Amino acid sequence: MRKLTYFVAVSIDGFIGDPTGDATCFLRFVDEEFLAHLTSHCPETIASPGRRALGIDHLKNEQFDTVIQGRASYDLALAENETSPYAHLRQYVASRSIKESPDPAVEIVAGDLAEKVRELKAEDGDLGIYLCGGADLAGQLKEEVDELVIKTYPLVLGAGMPMFAAGFSVGEFTLESVETFGNGVVVRKYVRKR
Fold first, then answer.
1. For site-directed labelling of 146, which of 71, 120, 125, 188 has its Cα 20 to 30 A away?
2. According to the model, what pLDDT value does residue 134 have?
3. CA distances from 19 to 16, 74, 94, 160 (A)
4. Considering only CA atoms, which of 165, 163, 164 is closest in space to residue 16?
5. What pTM was estimated for this model as a whole?
6. Contact at 8 Å (CB) between 7 and 61?
């Protein structure tokens, strides 16, 4: 069975962005060392415009072949006239307000999102599913998340958008790995306890 992985950038105090969801404060930590890590371990998590700008659009997918993102995340791409922000992946956007996809490579999921994720997880394949935020989407899929890859940046925001916008329920995960970088970034991978 394929896995759903919430691959997310957060502050030390657990916010994925400011109260509006803006996470540009994290970008300064994507230095040469950390970018080399991303491009060698998970280049598919870099959106198509970034891959083109970095000259890495030719790199093969290492961990994921599918991406699920929320409407707000997709709106960021649309604001840049990018209708297929992860052209190297199968793309799904969770939205009840987008009636028709602006791009044939992007499928809009307006119905039961958790059911769609279970269908995707049941497919054959070696690569997984990348959950590309935001907080509302992660909250809706909290019980479906099999792995967390948390890129913690050395900043305290004090307030902002949480990792999961969801009601209280306890989900237990096991720490699988920790990687640290010279710029203070820490990447932790957790696997859900079953």
1. 71
2. 83
3. 9, 18, 21, 4
4. 163
5. 0.95
6. no
| Distances 34 to 46, 181, 186 between C-alpha atoms, Å | 13, 7, 10
- Specify whether the backbone of 81 is left (phi greater than 0), alpha (psi in -120 to 50) or beta: left
Give the per-residue pLDDT at 133: 76
- 172/159 Cα distance (integer angstroms): 24
Q: What pLDDT, in 10s, does the model give residues 106-162?
A: 999 999 999 999 999 999 999 999 999 789 999 999 999 999 999 999 999 999 999
Buried b (16+ CB within 10 A) or exposed e, 79-95: eeebbbbbbbbbbbbbb
Structure letter (DSSP) for residue 79: H
182 cis-preceded (ω within 30 degrees of 0): no
Helix or strand run (H / E) with residue 188? strand 186-192
The DSSP symbol for 117 reads: H
Q: Which two tokens stand for residue 77?
A: 């791409």
Start-end of H helices in 105-175:
113-122, 135-140
Q: Give the single-character DSSP code of 123.
A: S
Model pLDDT, residue 116? 97
Given a contact cutoff of 8 angstroms between Cβ atoms, the answer to whether 126 and 107 are in contact is no
Pairing relationship of beta strands 64-70 and 90-94 according to DSSP bridges? parallel
Residues 85 and 127: their CA atoms lie apart, in Å, by 19
